[in-house]
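Record now logged for everyone:
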Amino acid sequence: MAQQAYMTETDSGGSGPERPGSRLRRLRERLAAGWRGDRRIWRRGLITAAVAVVLAVVMAGHARIPNRIGNLGSLTETFLPWFGLLIPVLLVIALLRRSATALIAVLLPATVWLNLFGGLLTDKTGAGGDLTVATHNVNADNADPAGTARAVAASGADVVALEELKASAVPTYEEAMASAYRYHAVVGTVGLWSKYPMSDVRAVDIRLGWKRAMRATVATDGGPVAVYVAHLPSVRVKMEAGFTARQRDKSADALGEAIADERLPRKILLGDLNGTMNDRALNAITSQMRSTQGAVGDGFGFSWPASFPMARIDQILVTGVEPETSWTLPETGSDHLPIAARVKVDTSAS
């Protein structure tokens, strides 16, 4: 009888190998039991819940944060995607505190962040297009301009814009890119290299007092395209002044006016705008053009700083042409990453 009883107990799984699913189920049951038996789950974690609500309000209402004090609104919008890093931190704290209130509150910023940036998490790249463009702030202090030029040319882009060109380094860039690009023009500190003929090349006044923007008509196989190259003034974060961007903002308005006055329907803007697509200060530009990264890119496409990219301040914006794919190129000798995009110029068959 004793032997029979022992065998029956063994057959029922009492001392047999435990299944992983059983262990997970028992763990969930213990956690659930602990939460069900805790009468304070709604009273704990109120500070965590409050922080989550504030985070959600800041992200949802970023456009209402005033720029009057240190351009705080623009500063917030520049690094807005990174606010999402606080969400898993708050989630862990809510779980450790066993706070139902905090857990529910964390859903608010998570929902707002996904609404703002969830679309960038999916790969929207396509395989079409008839024109590849690239842009790169090469850095005036670049120790290897020839290597940087060759790296950008190796991308296969039909049209390449370079910004922050040091006068003494221009001949080096011209020589390094001559074999790949038959046509080129340099205006001030920006330049454009093209495999297609260029005409009507001229400086664009962005109210700086020196030349950091240009436009050219590029005669592509799909038709003429007005290509703009711009390097907007830099911004700084200073303890006594906040986010100093007044001159950048004025130049952005001037560039937006020039693009709006452009007679050609197909327009491409390439350059370092020293601002992200979320930054309201660039509305004069972004309200009339599409970001190729936002439309057909894979991920955020951060371009600066090259060693640890935290923001996409280098932009490819288009109107009148159809973006197909957008990507970031490998690091060069610059503190920016080059970026590229492929667009469809001839949209008559679309």
Q: What stands out?
A: The CA atoms of residues 179 and 308 lie 32 Å apart. Confidence is low (pLDDT under 50) at residues 1-13. The first strand starts at residue 131 and ends at 137. The two ends are 83 Å apart (CA to CA).
